[in-house]
Amino acid sequence: MSFRLTEEQIAIVTAPLAPLRVSAGAGTGKTTTVVLRLKALISEGIEPEAALGITFTNKAAGELGDRLRSEFPDLTADGREIQVTTYHGFAYRLLQEFGALVGVERDTAVIGPAHQRQLIEEGLGSGTYEQLDLTYPKGVIDNAFTLAGQVGDNLLDVESVSEAAPTDDSRDDVWATRLELLSLVGSYTEAKSRLGVVDYADLVGRAHRLVTEHPAIAQRIRDRYRVVLLDEYQDTDPAQRELLRAIFGNGFPITAVGDSDQTIYEWRGASRLNFDGFVRHFPQSDGSDAATLPLTLNRRSDRVILELANRIRGYLHGDRAFDALRPGPEAETGTIETGWLGTRDDEAQWIAEQIGRVHEGGTPWTEIAVLVRKNRDIGPVREALLAAGIPSEVASVGGLLEVPEVAELLAWLRVLDDPSDSTSLARILLGSGYRLGIGDIAALQGWIRRRSRTTDPSPTLLDTIEDVANVEGLSPAGRERLADFRRRYRDLLVEAQSASVADLCRSTLAAMHAWTEIDSMEDHAGLSARLNLYRFLDLVESWTPIVGRPSLNSFLRHLRLLADESAPKELDAVAVSRGPAVAILTVHRAKGLEWDTVAIPSVVDGGFPSRSTAYANPVDKAEYLPYSLRLDTESLPDLSSATTLKERNAILRDYHEAEEWRTAYVAVTRARHRLIITGSHRTPERKRPRSPSPLFVMATELADSTVTSDDPGVIEPPPWKPLGAAPDPLFAESGWDQALRQATDDPGWLTSYPEHAAAAAAAAGQMRLDLESLPEPTSNERKDVKATSVTGLVTLARCPQQFRWAFVDRLPMRPSPALRRGVAFHRKVELHNLGKVPLDDLEESTYDLTAEGDSAAVAGPDPYEVFLASRLANRPARFAEVPIDLQFGNVRVRGRIDAVYEPEPGAWEIVDYKSGRASKDPALDVQLQTYAIAAVDGAVATPAPNRLSVTFAFFGGGEFADRTVEVDDSWLAEARARIDELTDRFDRGGYEPTPSDACGRCDFKTFCEAGRAFLAD
Ligand code: SF4
Description:
single chain, 6-stranded parallel beta sheet, 23 strands
């Protein structure tokens, strides 16, 4: 520890073993203090296993766990650990151990919000409803989802809430609607029990039932621990509080660390009462209130930033005293800049200029972030950064789906899922890949219009492409491009029948030549596009459906939910990679993160703090529980004095505003040294000018510099130029819009256009020839070929049954954070190697990540750091990320080699990077065997090497380890025999289980009898 403990920290570290609340302001080193307290307790004789840390997110739990392991190396070496888990993880563990007592099987699957909505939606079709507005099913699903959450978070069930309904005489429409919503929640509950799954609220509710109905179990858990530390306690909901109380109440030495001013998750159930009321909920053994100790020394932010944070808190607390944040001794003055610009685009451009200047001053891109209150503010900032040559990464689903590369991929996926989606198809055809002229689109439309007269249903845009030979009026280039599109579309359509969504995305990106295009962009734009596509692929890889096969259709439905700005924010699952780019994300996603420089745009009146038009009003809205039924009634606003909706909204507006100011407090305290706060007079959507918000004014009062522009007046939409210059050279005289009108009015007009008509006739003849020579896309020959990946072969070698469920008759698999870490590691290494490899070789983006070596959860230093210190970091790879595609009999095997080094001419070393610790799993060898065969057979590059070695390079656990094999004839013969045997087995389809130690990590062990029997022995 390089700094001295403060008096406040010493008081906490040495506090007696009794209930304690630590009120820790932003950036005050609460994690450090928690670790130090644990250290002190362990040095006083508490066994590490008797200490339990609970925090809110898996990420935070992982970080705290890593921190503890590095603080207690001796314990870690002895295999001893302090347990760290999440609030939900704690409940899950209780149910794993004792869940049978409350009807929960071990390893019951837990479903997230997107799946919850899917099940609610399915229930909607099976009931009859009079009150619910079924013309707007999404609204009904949202409301049932909200109500289900409120019921669970307050330890209630459908029956108990229904019983609270007034009798028929006094029942109003709100209660009538609420009862119908409750019946939908009831169907959802039945669906969960039919499928054997639980949601997060169930986890806590069942665990609470377990410990209250079986006090002996509560006592047993309590006896296991001598001390419990709760982190981010302000984010917990009432049910979580009650679960903890039932076990660790009445004087148990439990410490809650949090900051009630950072409660910004009330919309997802967090209760302010939990932190504020902790001292009463967890009293001392004698019944008196628990003690509270503050942490106020902020070692993160500079002085002026803390001054702004304290002013925000002062505004929040009004007359009530609060513990102001104090700067650390090393704090500098810091900088706040505010800019009030003309238009939103001017504002975004100004932010980009400031960021460029800050970077020139020495701040790396990765230390700069733009935090938006709403997703809609992401687009203008992203575009301005792009225009200014600044790499950026969007870490928020709503914004990510708008990024051009991702939007184009999505358009392809939509057309593959639904051929009638002409909007997406038009986007592809008009986009940079095909650049169809508007005259060609008009020709396609003319064909549709003519066919519509005789065909029912009307043909779609895709039908025109299938019948392109009969479409009159197409330009030769347009016709050629449509033929190209059709060929790629058919290939992808065939692949979509069997490939996973992730594989389909990769193939689609390859068909779009996305990677090649990205590589031809300027560095900053290419890096931004690459990082954003990676974020999207992360989303795809982390998704598994709760029921049914993981189809493209269910993924797109899932995505629609994620993209919905009004959907609950916890659906937003995009991670921040901290790649070499400016991060753009929402404030809510930024909690717990920090950067040197933070820009906050759109700090305008009603924008940030934002003004809601709809409040969680239980008197007028059926989806909210009446306050009297909630466990945190005492902390909720008193609505009893209000007699009208307007009055109730006025009360709720103040309540909502407080949460917005807390969000502002979180936003400004993400910055270490510099805050850039901006707004603008005008946006294209509004006629009226905007004005600075109170937050903007507050920041300006402290700002070192302020830029103010005049109001430029209403932003007029771009003028419609009926006869302006034509972007399509074919209609240079009349302009493309005029040509479109004429072509629509008179389908014969295009063919009478002399240049166009001649070219169209020639292209039509060529197209006919092309058509006749096209093979059938689903010929028998193609169907008979089976395909798998190198990772699939490794799995097959390990256990054919596991291979079957993972790759053939696919079953949902648990998302693996460790595997995702493996992907992140490979991407970092890939970026590291960029510039040292021929860029064309990067077209395929799949990694051969095997379960062993990449998914083993490994603590300790970042494997990328270990890579940088290894012998491989500074060697130029001759090839990197090489796609391979091999045929063994009737089986096609595809994969990707991480790197090929050439230490001397003609001598290759193929290296497979692993983010985990060294492994001796014999199944892994299949990977190197396949790569060696690929190299020797010329599938990597020609000529093949004269000498070859293959290496596993492990970077996990803080140590570099490698295992190299020199390939000779006998090794290669053995390799070929093994791969032949595996591919033959795949071709024959024999998938018997082969239990081994791998069963312990297998996703299917809960229903694999052989695996269960093996594990039970
Ligand atoms: S549990 Fe074991 S035997 Fe069963 S599929 Fe998994 S690895 Fe194979």
